[in-house]
Amino acid sequence: MSVPILKQGDILIASIQSALSDQDLVELRDQLADRVGRLRARGVVIDVTALDVLDSFATRTIRGIAYTATLRGAATVVVGVQPEVAFAMVQLGLGLDGIATALDLEEGLALLHAGKVERALRK
Amino acid sequence: MINIGNQTPAQVLSQEMGLTEQAVERRKRISGLEPADLERISSIKNLVLAHTEEYTSVFFDHLSSLDEGRMVLANRALAERARQLKREHLAAMVQADYGTGYVTQRLELALLYSKAGLDLRVFLAAFHYLLKSIGSTVMKHFEAEPVVGFEAFMSLKKVAFFDIGIIVDALVFERERVIRQQQEAIRELSTPVLQIRERLLLLPIIGVIDTHRARLITESLLKAIRANRAKVVVMDITGVATIDSKVANHVIQTVTAARLMGATVIVTGLSAEVAQSLVVLGIDLAKLNTVGDLQGGLEEAEFLLGYRAASDPSGSFGAPAPRS
User: Fold this and answer.
1) Is the overall model pTM greater than 0.90, yes or no?
2) Which residues in chain B have Cβ-Cβ distances shorter than 8 Å to A108?
3) How far is residue B85 CA from its own chain's centroid?
């Protein structure tokens, strides 16, 4: 199942709705990298609210998306990591180092609009 | 959960202690009870049955000769019931049938002792007097053939030790019940997550952090972050006396997990000793945002949330815009 990428002003929102295969994730990465440049996006929000598992591949891919988007000029925020997911990720030693996170979509958009992602990155 | 509706307390206890038929068989094997023993016991059955009243008196006389025992027997109804059960016990002891029914009977008596607050050492002493008096009647009866008498008595003694095993386990189990309940209570009390301002949580940690507790703390914090839509968490570890590398890792894990949910964690209250031991241990705390004391931590948190004098124009941390 592919991930819909919505455009909201100069921000792209990738809302993951169900468990993704590795192939889907790679597709999402390529599409986002493409659209960030084409639509001249300033920010990207990746919403993982619906995911109850984030394995090492997914974590690495999401990290890849964030770094790619940043290199192309768009700040990236990952939003909606569930408590259980966060706990499992920490247990497994997976992290999103250097990537801004926010509680939900609303928070993530606020973060981008306030232009504070760079600051969050340094934390 | 165990259904208490139509079960006696002793039956419930037997289930809680896991005294299934197999467990009882295992206990019999541990005591070394063999078919030959059962036969020997049958041979002295009538002898013991004829003296149950006497043996019961020996047991309770010894109890009442001691201060510790007298206190227990002060409750007349309880003492009467205990006597009754002891008579039944002696009768059952020579029936050569030691199944779950027999064990439940023992547990009923153990529960009574536990309720009366009978000390193990007092019980053991009284039980020894009882055995001694059984021994002397048996030996008197088998005066002509002391070896046979001794063997019969030793077989009965195996049953007696089988009983003691059950009684001791039950008394310890009952005593530890209090400990289990207290542990449960401590566990519940030990991980409060308090909201002290809109989007600001306080997590005071007191006492020892072990792996289990660290897990509970992390879980309740993550749930609270979502429930309260928290942005900043102040984690105060003033009450944690010592920190080793394991505990430090737990703290780091908690902080990392909270960050994944978009919350910033400020750690406060690292004492001089704790800070030094962390440095000595060589733990990288670069990921942690630490502030000296709780007051400083709360000030920092409020700063991040944008609570500040309107004259300060510098950026807020993605928080609601400062009130103008």
Assistant:
1) no
2) 262
3) 28
Distance of alpha carbon B28 from alpha carbon B6, whole angstroms: 28
A85 touches chain B (CB under 8 A): yes
Interface touch B260/A90, C-beta < 8 Å = yes
Q: What angle do CA B147, B148, B154 make, to 5 degrees?
A: 85
- Whether the complex's predicted ipTM surpasses the cut of 0.85: no
What pLDDT score does B73 carry? Answer: 79
Q: How far apart are CA A23 and CA A34, in angstroms?
A: 17
Q: How many CB pairs under 8 A join A and B?
A: 73
Domains, chain B, ranges and CATH?
Answer: 9-187 (1.10.490.10), 194-305 (3.30.750.24)
**Pairing state between β B264-268 and B289-291:** parallel
Domain map of chain A by residue range?
Answer: 5-122
- Is B122 in a helix, a strand, or coil? helix
**Six-digit token pair at A31?**
């599409």
Q: Which CATH superfamily is domain A5-122 in?
A: STAS domain (3.30.750.24)
CA distance A99 to chain B (A): 9
Chain B CA closest to residue A112? B318
Query: Quick check: B266 pLDDT over 90?
Result: yes
Tell which residue, B27, B41, B26, has the closest CA to residue B163: B27
Asked if B124 and B59 touch (Cβ cutoff 8 Å), the reply is no
Residues 51-70 of A with CB under 8 A from B: none
Q: Is A93 on the interface with B (CB under 8 A)?
A: no
Instruction: Give B178-188 pLDDT, tens digit per residue.
Output: 888 888 777 76
